[in-house]
Amino acid sequence: MRLLVFSDIHQDKRACEDLVRRSARADLVVGAGDFATRHDGLEETIAALGAIDAPSVVAPGNNETPEALAAACAAGWPRAHVLHGRVATIEGWRVLGIGAGVPPTGKEWSFDLDEEEVEDLVGALEVDLEATGVEGRRIDALVTHSPPRGCCDEVARGVPMGSVAIAEAVRRLRPRVVVCGHV
Length: 183
Fold this sequence. Notes:
Blueprint: E1 3-6, H1 13-22, E2 28-31, H2 42-49, E3 56-58, H3 66-76, E4 80-82, E5 86-90, E6 93-98, H4 115-131, E7 141-144, H5 164-173, E8 177-179
Parallel strand pairs: 1-2, 2-3, 3-4, 6-7, 7-8
Antiparallel strand pairs: 5-6
Helix pairs in contact: 2-3, 4-5
């Protein structure tokens, strides 16, 4: 499985063009959020990515809501699966997406979740997976905007900004791949 992963393109048209070009060699394209900048430019950015023909999954960042991302993808990139708190099977891989800034960024405009909300999303998902009889590795790929606590989450002076709930989800779900951005 050849993955093309990206995050935090924030309306960068050149990055979109490069991703479209690179996607020709990918089996699965994964976008981990922040397509827009403070909710601006989402539709144009998604439309620029709409030329990607490879199967694709995206999760919202803190710069767009799940609803806005779903609407933009429906209009401009209909082959992209928008995942937030749900699982889709793409190319034989079970992929879970969790968007948002976690923990909350404290910015008024930001789409954020707190740790408890992430725990609830993952807990409900685990109940659904158990009900459908999924055994062994339950998730092949976990796509989150925010990183798990302790992994790729340090900002200025080594301060960790990752999510404890996402780190716990990684431990419990044991995905083959974790894709994140934000930091």
